Amino acid sequence: MSKQDEYKLKGNDFFKQKKFQDAIEWYTKAIDENPNIEAAAAIYSNRCASWQGLGNHTKAIEDAECCVRVRPNWLKGHFRKGVSQEAMGQPDAALKSYEAALSTDSKNDEVQERVSTLRAQINERNTRMTPAKCT
User: Fold this and answer.
1) Quick one: angle between helices 75-87 and 57-70, nearest 10?
2) Range 57-85 average pLDDT
3) Is there a contact between 30 and 7 (Cβ–Cβ < 8 Å)?
4) Cα–Cα distance between 40 and 69 in angstroms, integer?
5) What is the separation, in whole angstroms, between the first and last Cα of the chain?
6) Residue 129 gets which letter from DSSP?
C-alpha cells in the first residue's frame, strides 16, 4: 500500500468519527504525496467534505476545484463545489456546478433534484425582482 493510500485511510477513519480537523490533516498528508494524479481527486473530495463538515465552505470550494482539476469528468468534485456554493448563498454558481456534475452523470437523481430545485428558486427570485427605473 502506498503512503498516499495509507494516509487517506487514516483520514477516512477520522472522517467516519466526524473528527473533521484530524481527517483534514491526514488527507493533506496524502495529497502532499502526489497532488496531481487522478487518484488524488478522491482525497481532495474527502478533504472537501471534511471542510464542509466544519462549515468552512471557502476551503471546501478550493478542494472541490482541485478535485475537478485532476479528474474533470468525475461527478463528485462538481457536486461538492455546488453544495458549498449553495451553502454560501450562491445559487447561480451552485446551479452551474450541479449542471457540470450532471454532464458527467446525467442519471444521478440527487443532482437532478438539486438542479430542479435551484432552477425553481432562481426563477422565483428573478420573477420577484423588479428592474430599476431608468432615469
Assistant:
1) 160
2) 98
3) yes
4) 10
5) 69
6) -
| Nearest one of 93, 36, 88, 30 to 67, comparing CA atoms | 36
Task: Report the amino acid identity of residue 73.
Answer: N
pTM > 0.90: yes
Confidence band for 128, pLDDT divided at 50, 70 and 90: confident
Report the amino acid identity of residue 92. D
Q: Taking all residues of the chain, what is their mean pLDDT, rounded to a whole number?
A: 95
Grid look-up 431608468 returns 134
Closest CA to 90 of 118, 126, 55: 118
Contacts of 27 by beta carbon, 8 Å cutoff, 6+ apart: 7, 8, 11, 43, 44, 46, 47, 50
Neighbours of 34 (CB within 10 A): 14
For 2-16, write each residue's pLDDT tens digit: 999 999 999 999 999
Q: Per-residue confidence at 72, pLDDT binned at 50, 70, 90?
A: very high
Q: How many CA atoms lie within 13 A of 7 on its CB side?
A: 20
